Amino acid sequence: MNEQQWLAMDEYLCDRTQTPDAALEAALKSSADEGLPAINVAPNQGKLLQMLAQLRGARRILELGTLGGYSTIWLARALPADGTLITLEAVEHHASVARKNIERAGLSGVASVIVGDAVDTLESFVRDGIPPFDFIFLDADKKSYPAYLRLVLRLSRPGTVIVADNVIRSGRVADVGSADPDVIGVRKFFDMLAADTHVTSTAIQTVGSKGWDGFSISIVS
Ligand code: SAH
Ligand code: DHB
Ligand code: MG
Fold first, then answer.
1. Whose CA is closest to atom 8 on ligand 2?
2. For the domain that residue 205 is a member of, what is the CATH number?
3. Centroid of ligand 3 to alpha carbon of 139 (angstroms)
4. What is the 3-state secondary structure (H, E, C) of the chain?
5. 124 pLDDT higher than 80
6. Which residue, judged by its Cα, is nearest atom 5 of ligand 2?
7. Is residue 65 within 8 Å of residue 36, measured between CB atoms?
8. 65 CA distance to ligand 1 middle (Å)
9. Which domain holds residue 43?
């Protein structure tokens, strides 16, 4: 098996399960034109996020790590017209590209981007006692996943679904001796999930157009 085969398979799967979508394609094109890194979720993973949020019946969605808003658009489309998605982004330029992409997708009424360090924003949410979220997607810096998990659990309620992206990193996360802050962060995140009796979790490895990576899914009880 090699990456060319994974890519060919992803192309086949996306061809058979997705319809051309001008807003999503424009979001990727403007992100590339504006110099953003191509580290958005793959189309089939974006659709999975949308379907999971739909299955959950989510009315309030929280995303950490907006980039150009590609995953934001997938998730926001799972919402009813009076739903809410809040996405947190540290880099002003990313947020500004994302806002245009969200607007073009006709989702400005449900999705809003908040600029700042996600830890600071989450702490302010906890302080302000904002209503809990139904679906949470962790996809900002991986070294901070432990801090994010601690905070988003305080913004959850029984039934909240938490999906965390990039928890495999080409298998590096299995390396107990790794000095990579991202790997250390993801391993601590898994330790916290393992120790928390109020969270049911699984994690899945993926190969495809984004290489070898994967995600975890947790349900809060
Ligand atoms: N969810 C996007 C990809 C996000 S890439 C998609 O799939 O389309 C990760 C993003 O997290 C980057 O835009 C990066 O600027 C942002 N980020 C990194 N550290 C952050 C922090 N401390 N707080 C908020 N956002 C952060
Ligand atoms: C990186 C971040 C992501 O969210 C992703 O999906 C892939 C890579 C990164 O920071 O390298
Ligand atoms: Mg990611």
1. 39
2. 3.40.50.150
3. 5
4. CCHHHHHHHHHHHHHHHCCCCHHHHHHHHHHHHCCCCCCCCCHHHHHHHHHHHHHHCCCEEEEECCCCCHHHHHHHCCCCCCCEEEEEECCHHHHHHHHHHHHHCCCCCCEEEEECCHHHHHHHHHHHCCCCCCEEEECCCHHHHHHHHHHHHCCCCCCCEEEEECCCHHHHHHCCCCCCHHHHHHHHHHHHHHHCCCEEEEEEEEEECCEEEEEEEEEEC
5. yes
6. 39
7. no
8. 3
9. 3-220
Residue whose Cα lies nearest atom 9 of ligand 2: it is 39
Q: What is the mean pLDDT of the chain?
A: 98
Identify the nearest ligand to the CA of 116 by its number: 1
Task: Supply the angle between the helices 92-104 and 22-33 in degrees, to the nearest 10.
Answer: 160
Mutate to test the pocket of ligand 1, among 29, 34, 36, 67 (most ligand atoms within 8 A of CB): 67
65 lines ligand 1 (CB under 6 A): yes
pTM, two decimals, is: 0.98
CB-based contact 101:26 (threshold 8 Å): yes
pLDDT in tens, 133-182: 999 999 999 999 999 999 999 999 999 999 999 999 999 999 999 999 99
Going from the Cα of 116 to the center of ligand 2, the distance in angstroms, rounded, reads 18
**Number of independent structural domains in the chain:** 1
CA-closest residue to ligand 1 atom 22: 117
| CA of 145 relative to ligand 1 center, distance in Å | 12
